[in-house]
Amino acid sequence: MNNRNKGGVNVENLADKINGAVEVDQKFIEEYFKRNERKKEDDKWIKEKRRLVIKELQKLEKDVVDYGDIRVSMVIPDTSNFDKEKVLEFVETKGIKSKVVKEELDEDKFMQLIEEGLIDIDELKKYAWIESTGNPRITLKELKR
Fold first, then answer.
1. How far apart are CA 86 and CA 38, in angstroms?
2. How does 118-137 read in b/e, with b if 16+ C-beta sit within 10 Å?
3. CA 53 to CA 62: how far, in whole Å?
4. Does the reported pTM lie above 0.85?
5. What tens digit of pLDDT does each residue of 45-87 get?
6. CB 32 within 8 A of CB 140
7. Degrees, nearest 5: CA angle 113-119-125
8. Contact criterion met (CB below 8 Å) for 4 and 15
């Protein structure tokens, strides 16, 4: 089949150029590898130098400092939270534990019932299984020859 329109343009090649299609070959993988290695080096450098920037802002006792045309801001997130065990103790002393504590599945006893044959795993799978996969991961490593 001819993929050329009346003007003689190869439609597939044009679509590839518009969509940024790239042939994944050795040259492409080598470039990907080099850039990935450079990124690792940059990330390491940034992590090390970040500490210096934080120390400087702390020394200046400022959250925002302008260096020429670059503004550096620092935010320290508040990650405070309640101690769950102490909250449970608190609600128990107030006599309201039953109002705030919910039932949970005892996974050990549940597994025991499966092993004893009292729960059919195939029936359970049909009823409650959720198929899921994570994001693809790519690892590149230089081969020593």
1. 48
2. eeeeeeeeeeeeeeeeeeee
3. 11
4. no
5. 999 999 999 999 999 999 999 998 899 999 999 999 999 999 9
6. yes
7. 125
8. no
